[in-house]
Amino acid sequence: MILSDYETQALLLSLKVSATAVLWLLPIGVFLAWLLVKKEFWGKKLVDSVIHLPLVLPPVVIGYLLLLTMGKQGVIGKFLFEQFGLVFSFNWKGAALASAVVALPLMVRAIRLSLMNVDPKLEQAARTLGASPIKVFFTITLPLVLPGIITGAMLSFARSLGEFGATISFVANIPNQTQTLPLAMYNFIQTPGAEFQAARLCVISIIIALLSLLCSEWLTQKTQKKLGVSTGNAKGGNA
Fold first, then answer.
1. Longest dimension (CA), the chain
2. What is the rounded CA–CA span in Å between residue 218 and residue 223?
3. What is the pLDDT of residues 32-68, one digit of tens each?
4. Alpha helix locations (H) across 39-91?
5. How far apart, in whole angstroms, are the C-alpha atoms of residue 17 and residue 91?
6. Which long-range contacts (CB under 8 A, 24 or more apart) does 135-140 make?
7. What is the pLDDT of residues 212-235, one digit of tens each?
8. What is the mean pLDDT of the chain?
9. N or C: which end of the chain has fewer CB within 10 A?
10. What stretch of H or E contains 40?
């Protein structure tokens, strides 16, 4: 399957945008999941609901809100531009931001479920032996939730690949700059006689998403086996 330069650029941009979105989401997702599982505070349910809003809001609404807040004249975007020269609207970084926002609930939910399954006795034992909270987190908690982090990262990557509504609302559909696979497909669908190109990009999107999910499953199982062996050895040593 030989792609044209136009299709190749859209594919490479999609991979770049999705990978960047996942990298941005990893620390945010881990922190928010930890906050929701380990801490009790006023407004916790509200925070949880806001995090999951992208699952139920129309993507166009998300894109419009990003334009209002992160655009060059937006509340936050104007400050970032004037102080640091950062611009998100109408460039690939804005596409990555839009993808990160819509994928955030998937990342947080996957890590949160893993955190809920961590045995608190392991963390308490480490604290009893004198480990600081930060050391407990990085040496006990984080390795145990690694399967959830992998799952969240892969799901977020696949979701970012398919992002359309928020992206086109926030950064438009500019070839070589913001035109990802879904946007290129949209162009082909609207172009008479370009059905084959649209179908080809559709197949490529499905293959990449499927590979992401299969890779997630394989990495998760492999990590769980390693953690199972390590936990088993630790229990054996304690016995």
1. 72
2. 9
3. 999 999 888 999 999 999 999 999 999 999 999 999 9
4. 44-56, 59-70, 77-84
5. 10
6. 137/34
7. 889 888 888 888 777 664 444 444
8. 89
9. C
10. none
Q: What token pair was written down for 187?
A: 């162009």
135: its two tokens: 């050391």
Residue 19 burial (CB < 10 Å; 0-12/13-18/19+)?
middle
Amino acid (one-letter) located at 150: I
Cα end-to-end span (Å), the chain: 58
For tokens 């399967």, name the residue.
147
Q: Look up the pTM and report it.
A: 0.88
Give helix then strand counts, H and E, for the chain. 12, 0
Query: Under CATH, what is the fold of the domain 5-230?
Result: MetI-like fold (1.10.3720)
10 Å Cβ neighbour count for 27?
9
Among 235, 168, 198, smallest CA distance to 7 is for 198
Query: What token pair was written down for 28?
Result: 């945010």
Question: Up-side HSE of residue 213: CA atoms within 13 Å toward CB?
Answer: 8
What's the CA gap between 93 and 186, in Å, rounded? 20
Report how far apart, in Å, the C-alpha atoms of 170 and of each of 85, 93, 98, 119, 149 are: 18, 11, 7, 42, 28
Please give the structure tokens belonging to residue 182: 């879904």
